Amino acid sequence: MAITTTTATDVQPIEFAFEEEYTGPLELTREQEIAYFEAQVMKKLGITGTEFLQRMDDGEYNDVYDDPDHRDIGYLEMLSHVVR
Amino acid sequence: MSDRSLRAERERYVDHIRKSVACISRDVLIVAPLDGTGLWRVRFANDPNRLPTSPELIFRAIHDFRIEHLSQLESPSPRSVGYQYELRDRNDDEVFAYHLHPTGLSHVTTPHLHVTGGSRAVRLDKRHLVTGAVTFPDIIRLLITEFDVPPLRSDWRDILESADYD
Lengths: 84, 166
Prior knowledge:
By secondary structure, chain A is mostly helical. Helices cover 40% and strands 2% of the residues of chain A. Chain A is built from three helices and one strand, in the order βααα.
């Protein structure tokens, strides 16, 4: 099955510092959210977003999706909704 | 229904979530569109996210929603499309995980809870314990009242009560 993703290699994820005084929500663009997805996949699994989607489609994560020790997979899967 | 009214309702909804979150966290709240059809996401900017008044707890929250207009007679209203509210302890062991993922890898597509514990014969952490849909304010209230997370605001009860939305 072909994977259709929107890449955002030219958009860098934004790093946020914890704020002493909370002011309000920050609205990102879809491209920035895609960049966050890509950065989180690389940070948590060491692979690209495209490779993560391919592995997910191949069923590689089916057995661990509901495992409490692998909740990051579910988090990344939910983040991936921004690209498909 | 105009884009302006949908946007106003979305901003109002997100503001309720922002105020709820501010009861326990100083992390930045992110709002982002997921597609061109009105699907939006709210999440913490940082993951994992340690709570400032309970740094031994790790809280993850991500929530997808859309603003729907069901009829000409009704005002637009938010509808949860999916969420993950997860709490882990200082040892990175899971305490609870409230999930709604209508799409994805799991065969369970309705709101449910994973909780660590159970009997010697039956583990619960991989079971899907049925729940109704839960909201950001629900979880913030749960953290304060049941997990002893000290609130950052003294008026947290009023804020959460006014933020009960879904």
